[in-house]
Design a protein that fits this description.
about 10% helix; about 170 residues; signal; Porin; 1 helix; mainly beta
């Protein structure tokens, strides 16, 4: 068992060691992401928490300093169960800091326009601002491409909206 863990850590270390040159100042990054997978949860006043959730997001930005990227993005969340559909569109800005070579910590803020439609009912729209955080690891599969699994959290104080889960991104650096 210990040999397997050491082998996995050494492979991840070898793959991630190629990425240190890509997180330097003036490098551009494009990062499409998928979240949901029923490995997270969304809580709102209207819908409760039993839903299938799929999130899609694209972020792009620049490293404004070594290991520090500023990103802007557009995304959407689509949730549904047998009683309702709950969808939203997000505009966001985030800062991501890479530490320990390719481990990253991010904070973000954004605006969401959401609409909830009960089955057989009319849509209810709401708008809110949110803050969030993420913790992930960039696994470089080539010198300019990395897989970015991350844990995320998103919270709005105005609508008691709370979302957390796992997301996977594919970053391209140029």
């Amino acid at each position: 068992m210990i040999k397997k863990v050491l082998l996995i850590l050494s492979v991840v270390g070898l793959l991630s060691s190629t990425g240190s040159a890509q997180i330097l100042k003036n490098t551009w990054i494009v990062n499409p992401q998928v979240s949901g997978f029923n490995l997270g949860s969304t809580h709102t006043q209207e819908t409760g928490n039993e839903a299938f959730d799929l999130g899609l997001k694209v972020e792009a930005g620049n490293f404004i300093a070594n290991n520090l990227a500023f990103l802007v993005g557009l995304g959407g969340d689509f949730s549904w169960n047998k009683e309702y559909n709950d969808n939203s569109i997000d505009l966001m800005a985030s800062i991501r800091y890479y530490t320990l070579t390719t481990l990253f910590i991010g904070v973000n803020t954004g605006y969401t326009h959401a609409w909830n439609k009960p089955k057989g009912g009319s849509s209810v729209c709401r708008d809110y601002l949110y803050v969030g955080a993420e913790l992930g690891y960039a696994i470089f599969v080539s010198p300019n491409i990395s897989l970015d699994p991350a844990l995320y959290w998103k919270h709005s104080f105005t609508d008691k909206f709370d979302q957390y889960g796992l997301k996977i991104g594919l970053s391209v650096y140029f």
